[in-house]
Predict the structure.
Amino acid sequence: MNVSDMNLRVLQIMSMALSGWARQIDAADVQTLARECGVDEREAVIQLFAAQCGVEDREKIERYFRLSIEKVDADAFLRNPYLQTVRFPRKTRGRWKLDTMKYQPYELFVRDELLMMPDGREIPRLGYFDRETAYPAVLEDGREWMTVTPNEIATMEEAVRRANGHVVAMGLGLGYFAFRASEKPEVARVTVVERDPDVIALFQEELLPQFPNGEKITVVQDDAFTFAEKRLPDFGADFVFVDLWHDTADGAEMYLRMKKFERRIGAPFAYWIEPSIVALIRGLAHDDAETGRAWAERLLKSGARVEDAAADWLTFDMIR
């Protein structure tokens, strides 16, 4: 099996296990295996998760699972300025509910972007806490849609670092990016574009009043693509951050739609989980899937710069 096929296979089995196909690892599992086999807790988690995924191949465990799984420091996570500042009352507005969820000890979750290895391997980065740890979430019709977890924090860090001047954020969520961007002295203002009036109302009524720099933040109710086409070219943006999707599966199409606006705007763009979306497109294209190859061609023809090394494979030769 070549590395591209292996990447897809590992991603598929890990995703299925995380989505509920396998029973979650719990503290009793980890402590029992650690005690009986004389290994530390991280090694126990690795072995248990590999077993849940039906993986017995030692090479696959060493080359993927061992690089994937790390303990996340719960105290460091909870020291994040947003989590230290904002409290999350249980409130409902339309289909949306503001709530607090909890990770159980040793429950695995995605903690960061794919790790790109020099040999072409793409390692899903998973994490766990060793104690029960709460995080804020917005549920849509009971489904977790927007959260602030270690993954959101890690995958927005670069965009927060680059934010300056007049920042435009496509997608509101729980306002995490707007909060962190507004903290920066070099950010004059943050305009957030959000389509759903109930999401806006929850944010403005319950969260925004708690933001220390909330006066910098303005929310505009509009469709992000309509805004990008009709208003963004003359909006005076210095930096644009796009976060409209739940994951790579629903993100690829929207990502490609938004990429075409970059040349017209002039300001630098950043996209949430862009490396993982590009990796998905690459994997499908290499698999000779019609959709993947069409996506790859659209990305090339957009003329926009792809920031991540994951896109080095994009050549017209590949899709001719």
In short: The chain has 15 helices and twelve strands. The radius of gyration is 21 Å. Residues 25 and 107 are 6 Å apart (CA to CA). The longest strand covers residues 96-103.
